[in-house]
Structures are given as C-alpha cells and as structure tokens.
Design goal:
binds S-adenosylmethionine, 8 helices, single chain, 212 residues
Length: 212
C-alpha cells in the first residue's frame, strides 16, 4: 500500500519532524492529554515511531510499517505489526485505543473503528487525534499535500465525518478539544474545548454499553 511504503522509505525523516516542530508537537500532546485516561491499559493504533505513545505512557502499539515500528520498539513500545482494519489483538483487551493522524491513511475507516470497539473493554474509550479538513490549517494541508511525501496519498476528513462513523461503530458521549489555531507561525498553544478553528482536533468517545 502506497501510504505505508512512504513511511517505510523515510521513517527517520518522519521521526525528525517532532524535533523540527517542537511547539506543534507539544501543542498536540497537550490536547491529547486532555482526553487520554491517566490510568488503564491503552494501545495506539498506527503508533508510527512511538512519539505520542512514549510521552503518554502507552506501552503497546499496532503499526503496519516495519521501519516505523522498529523506531517505536527502540522507544520501549511493544509493537504488533498489523492494520487498524484487522487488529492482531484479542477482544476486550484494552481500556482505551488511540489513533493520531491515522484516519486519513485508512483504507476503511468504518471497519477500523469497529475493530477498535471490539478490542475495547466495557466502559472503555476511543481517542482520535486528527487534522480537521475543514479548519484553516487542514485546508493548507489539503492544498499542499502533493508536495509532502507522507501526506500525498492522505484522504483528510472533517470532525462530523469521523464523529458519524464513530457513532455508527458503537461509540457515544463525545468530547472535543482543538489546537494549532495559528496558521501563520508555529507557537505553543493551549488546547481549547470544541472544534472548528484548530487544525488538530482531539475527539474522545465512550464505548456504548449496549454494543459489548
Ligand atoms: C502520520 S503517521 C502517524 C504516526 C503516529 N500516530 C504519530 O502521530 O506520530 C500515520 C501512521 O499510520 C500508519 N498506517 C497507515 N495505514 C494504516 C492502517 N491501515 N492501519 C494502521 N496504521 C496505518 C502509517 O504506517 C504511519 O505510521
């Protein structure tokens, strides 16, 4: 798959982005910290090089790209090679799942969310970190994606699309946070509740009890 090949070809380069854009990384991390539970067993799906998992204390990941997974493993993350649409993980085995800028690379987002629900324990949650296609920054990403080796094949979504798919997959009680409102310069930003202005949006939703 083209989107995984790009990450295999340039995993080190991808990983360097976090040092070259430290304020953006910290802003995204702060937004994710509003949603990620402080306790319980979490798994990051599409864990990449493990930058977020490492900072958030998430010990397990799933990742299709061998090269990205190798870097995450060096950061101490236990990585299963696989895809979000067909998780190599038993039913009801995690308290929460996390996906950060992965929705735009999925072949089948609905299937991936159903899989996330399958592996989540009753009372558990899903947390999505995404580039909002409808935000000012999201529009910039969309316009320039052909120049970016990683995002060339990405299909960005907006928050309503993702929320609808999560609802259909059996999640409820949504909360939203946003960051990267400033599109002119990279600065450290405090997360703001809601969505509509920020380029990076965090969605948290709970697993519906009726859909165990
Ligand atoms: C933009 S990176 C994000 C990595 C990490 N979550 C982060 O925020 O740094 C997207 C990741 O999704 C992975 N990916 C692509 N298709 C996938 C799929 N179908 N299932 C799971 N991960 C996938 C890529 O290999 C890549 O590591």
């Amino acid at each position: 798959m083209e989107e995984v090949k790009a990450f295999n070809r340039a995993a080190q380069e991808y990983d360097k982005w976090f040092e070259e854009h430290a304020d953006w990384f910290s802003s995204e991390l702060e937004a994710l910290k509003q949603a990620v539970p402080k306790t319980g067993k979490g798994i990051e799906i599409g864990v990449g090089t493990g930058r977020f998992a490492g900072e958030l204390g998430i010990e397990t990941g799933v990742e299709p790209s061998e090269k990205m997974a190798a870097i995450a493993s060096k950061r101490g993350i236990r990585v299963f090679q696989g895809y979000a649409e067909d998780l190599p993980v038993p039913d009801l085995s995690f308290d929460y799942t996390l996906m950060v800028t992965v929705d735009c690379f999925l072949q089948d987002v609905a299937k991936a969310f159903k899989e996330a629900r399958r592996i989540t324990k009753p009372g558990g949650a899903i947390i999505i970190g995404m580039i909002d296609k409808s935000s000012p920054l999201g529009r910039k990403y969309q316009e320039h994606k052909k120049d970016n080796p990683f995002y060339r094949s990405a299909s960005f979504h907006d928050v309503e699309e993702i929320t609808n798919l999560l609802e259909k997959a059996g999640f409820q009680n949504f909360s939203f946070w946003q960051t990267l409102v400033n599109t002119e310069e990279e600065v450290l930003e405090k997360p703001i509740k809601g969505y509509g202005e920020g380029g990076f949006v965090v969605i948290k939703a709970e697993k519906k009890i009726s859909n165990l």
